[in-house]
Amino acid sequence: MLLEKATQALGELNAFSLIVPKVDLFIRMHIIKEASKSSRIEGTQTEMDEVLMRREEISPEKHDDWEEVQNYVQAMNQAIDELGTLPLSNRLLKRTHAVLMQGVRGEHKTPGEFRRSQNWIGGATLEDAVFIPPHHDEVTDLMSDLESMWHDENIDVPHLVRIAISHYQFETIHPFLDGNGRIGRLLITLYLVSKGLLAKPSLYLSDHLERNKTAYYDSLSMVRSSNDLGQWVRFFLVAVPETARKGKDTFQAILALRSALEPKLLGLGKRASNGQKFLTLLYSRPVIGVKEVAAELGVSHPTAGALVGEFTKLGILREITGYQRNRMFMFDEYLDLFLE
Questions:
Q1: Which positions ≥6 away from 83 have C-beta within 8 Å?
Q2: Are residues 235 and 273 in the same domain?
Q3: Average pLDDT of each block of 10 consecutive residues along the chain (340 residues)?
Q4: DSSP per residue over 204-236, as a string?
Q5: Which strands form 328-330's sheet, in the order they lie side by side?
Q6: For residue 288, what are the domain limits?
Q7: What is the 8-class DSSP label of residue 131?
Q8: In angstroms, how far is the first alpha carbon of the chain from the final one?
């Protein structure tokens, strides 16, 4: 029954993503949310609204966290694009891992390569570790076996169950020295897209996993300690429909917001055409400055400033810096749809 509900909810989300006009604008926001939530599971403290800001707008103590989340966004986008020419494979995961780890903490831990030394989870040493993954000499064979499972049509297992098992196996093998959690969660979306269950990368589980982090880790650990794979699969199959329904609700709320805002632009007169372009830009850049508006719309700085001023008067934008120069503006009502 859990599988049936999860499959139905996933299908509804997929159908909705196909009928929303310019859906890729909103998919970008889903990706940013996933990057923020998945990174928070690993301990970063960057909030979603901060991810949308320029680096210089972020507190210096958060720069490292901000860079890690930006890398996750870039890695995810690149992986989705490369699925058009590459199959879901260890080669693709390695390339994605290289992007994830570039220039951040862990960049010296063989980015883009499977580990060549022993790692562990929890504890300061191997002696007090919570879990010790397989020896590094076994990683290549284990990951090759996992890759074969993704593509073996003789294995008569539903895709959602297969990716649930795959996520567990990936996290248990822990093939990289760092970044395994983030790559393992990204693997879920890549699998669903590669198998055609999603036409767009619209399902991301990290928000659910971050809110249920203890149960998430406990379910994975239960397989290792008690050989209870069923508990983990059940946990996964509950996460999918809840996340899919929230994704569908977000798409519906976006359509309602668009319908409410577009009539307001008619009052801009000769600026209405640029106003429509600006609103479209805000759906992918809900935190923005006048300089970026001018560059993205190809208009002068005064024209961009006037547009931002009109949107502020209409209550669409809110100034968030308090500066006289280099001010930043936020599209609160839209961003809130992804923060709920």
A1: 92, 190, 193, 194
A2: no
A3: 98 92 87 89 82 82 88 93 95 97 81 95 90 97 98 95 98 96 95 95 92 94 93 97 94 93 91 94 94 95 95 96 84 90
A4: --HHHHHHTHHHHHHHHHHHHHH--HHHHHHHH
A5: 287-289, 328-330, 318-319
A6: 250-339
A7: B
A8: 28
| Residue ending a domain, choose from 226, 246, 266 | 246
The two three-digit tokens of residue 328, written as one number: 């930043």
At 38, the amino acid letter reads S
Domain boundary residue, one of 213, 246, 279:
246
Q: Where are the beta strands (DSSP E) in 150-308?
A: 287-289
- What span, in angstroms and rounded, lies between the C-alpha atoms of 243 and 202? 10
The H or E element that residue 328 is part of is strand 328-330
Question: Would residue 331 be called left, alpha or beta, if left means φ above 0 and alpha means ψ between -120 and 50 degrees?
Answer: beta
Share of the chain above pLDDT 90, in %: 74
CA distance 266 to 286: 21
Q: What is the pLDDT of residue 21?
A: 83
d(CA 19, CA 17): 6
d(CA 66, CA 104): 10
pLDDT value for 107? 66
Q: How many CB atoms lie within 10 A of CB 259?
A: 9
Tokens of 65: 């966290």
**CB-based contacts of 155: which residues, under 8 Å, 6+ apart?**
149, 162
User: What pLDDT does residue 106 have?
Assistant: 67
Say if residues 70 and 104 touch (Cβ distance below 8 Å).
Answer: no
pLDDT at site 123: 87
Q: Please report, for the domain that includes residue 281, its CATH number.
A: 1.10.10.10
Write out the two tokens for 196: 């055609």
- Residue in this structure with the two tokens 């850049």, named with its chain if needed: 285
State CA 302 to chain mean position distance: 35
- Rounded to two decimals, what is the model's pTM? 0.90
282 and 137: one domain?
Answer: no
